[in-house]
Please model this.
Amino acid sequence: MKRVLVIEDDHRMRDLLVRQLSALRCVAFAVGAPSGAQQAVDAHRPDIVIVDIGLPEMDGFALADMLCHNGIPMIASTGSASPDLEERVREAGFAGLLRKPFRLQDLARELRCPLPGN
Model:
């Protein structure tokens, strides 16, 4: 069972991600601001971290740079349609990209988890 930390400032998106992760049989933890990210990583020891790129205190790229020493794979999450975003995400060391709105199938693919019922 994968342990997934979600760092997302929008409470609706954060709640949706936690529900979707539960449906994928993952153990999900969530924080709403970058300031709690390192503490959550230390406390929960996630297998993977989903990072919103558009966070208020610092963007997801800066947060990924701060967390990269943990050696935990990270997936970027964004509503941006910027054409150069995929390249920026790869260069920042993210293992994947979820573009909002995304479906359960998209999340399962990025996490390499089976869909419910499969």
Notes: Helices lie at 11-23, 37-44, 60-67, 85-91, 104-111. The longest helix spans residues 11-23. Residues 90 and 96 are 8 Å apart (CA to CA).
